[in-house]
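Q: Got a minute? One more chain.
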Amino acid sequence: MKIYLRILGFIRPYLGIVLLSLVASLFYVVFNTASMWFTASLINVIFEDRPVAEEVQQPTAETPVTNLNERLKHESKQLIYQDNPVDTLKALCFIILGIFILKNIFYYLQGLGIGYVNMKVIQDARDRLYEKLNQLSMGFYDRHRTGTLSSIVINDVNAMNNSISNSFSKLLVEPANIVFFTTALFIISWRLTLMAIVVIPISAVLITKIGQSLRRKSSRTYRQIAHVMSILQEMLYNVRIVKAFATEDYENRRFQKSTQKHFHYSFRHKRLSVLSSPLNEIIGVAIGVILLWYGGLQVLLHNTLTSEDFIRFIILLFMLLQPLKAMSGLNNMIQTGVAAAERIFGILDKAPEVQERENAIPITEFKDAIEYRNVYFKYEDNWVLEDINLRISRGEVVALVGPSGAGKSTLVDLVPRFYDIDKGSVTIDGLDVRDLSFHSLRNLLGMVTQETILFNDTIAQNIAYGIDAADEDAIREAARLANAYEFIEKLPRGFETNIGDRGLKLSGGQRQRISIARALLNNPPILILDEATSSLDTESEQLVQNAIDNVMQDRTTLVIAHRLSTITHADKIVVLEDGHIVEEGDHHTLLAANGAYRRLYDMQFGAHPAPIEESS
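A: Always. Here it is, folded:
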């Protein structure tokens, strides 16, 4: 219930519309009850004996009224009965038509209002999820699969939408229907009504048990569809590798195994879901049959009920079964929606691991140095960096090298605060990065990664990503510096060419140069290059390397290098092993030291001693 109340919390901004829908619902219920009342009168007018009809066609003010039921019948007859049965029938038909028209007008109005609120709630939920996903730190994404998160934003929100749209309108209408119908039944015969409701607690217990089981099964179903979505996304993203290794059959089996498991969970959920409705209908019909027998005896043998009262009671009773049936299914809908909402709120409630401090300091320029002081960082229970001390002066090109898993990327990621350290400090111009505002800190940085990340948009928009109303000349200049201008101009639409999903319409080298241009557009004083050329062919690597050489001028640059040939002219080379800095110096000094750097160098260029070039 707590989760459902949180779901309803999304409705708070639209309470005005909800209240109007509630008013429309109440009018609908009033006219719905009246329609059933006069329908019973219609049946009675048509099928009553003519002599009796003649007696009651002209009711008078002196007609005895002994209870509320008799008063209501008296008022109804005053309204409908005319000089002859045909005119009475005509009047009753017009009254019923008018009531049904008004009933459905109010039903439309309440449905329209609730529909609007439902759709706004889903939009708000997706917007809040997307905003939260943008706020969460990189550590969160290290632990969660993209397919799972996508499934929550799409599938779980859809499930919550179905829960709200189907249950909330019923919560407005059906309880009122039940109250009005039940009140009318008590007015007609309290004895028969008490008999009808005696089994409701039994039904309620059954419904609750089914709902609890549905909630558990729904949770398993949503988790499994998220797994299916993850496999699908992995295949689509890596389809080239799948085809290259001829693993289509393996991927098919993996996907089919996952969808079979989803089918298993879904079918168990469906089997239980469809069971609740017929069970409740059987209970309802059993009640109806018992009451038909008992009520019929009151009419035929004991004369404690008139035939008109009995007809009206039976019509209202069976009309009562509809909202009761809807309310029984309502619990199933709510439990299904709650299972999805738990995953949604699980993300919305998650606090970013890296948070901007109150009164964070804005930094507008980089003057002196980046400095790591006794830095320790661990991921879960494993230390990734230990006792890191490093100074990177303004204008220096510093290369980080070492085997995979040595901590190179993590060391760089501490500067823009993708992660927070466990001990020590990382400072820029003496200011701890934890004291700086995110926006100003990251505006000092330009980043180019090994995996080129581009968007399904034009080249110009990709270069200008994150900059509102970027100057066209500045975009072109960034492209020139990145050695991208020439190939862009040869494209049919130049800078307005759409590059497709992840930029797949371009070659690897072209994508990387677009990425470099994007990093340059803000003219950042600090540039981070994370193995920016390692996945390129020789020709593309040379073009990209030339672009990198251009952009590194007059900038402080951190380079994570896989190919040592690209960093031989770095001002400082830092060698990491197992999270420790084991060597530091320029290319010539480290070669001469015959240490870890020399081993890496020999592994790439051969075991024979490499000649040490003279510094130019």
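A: The radius of gyration is 37 Å.
Q: Perfect, thanks.
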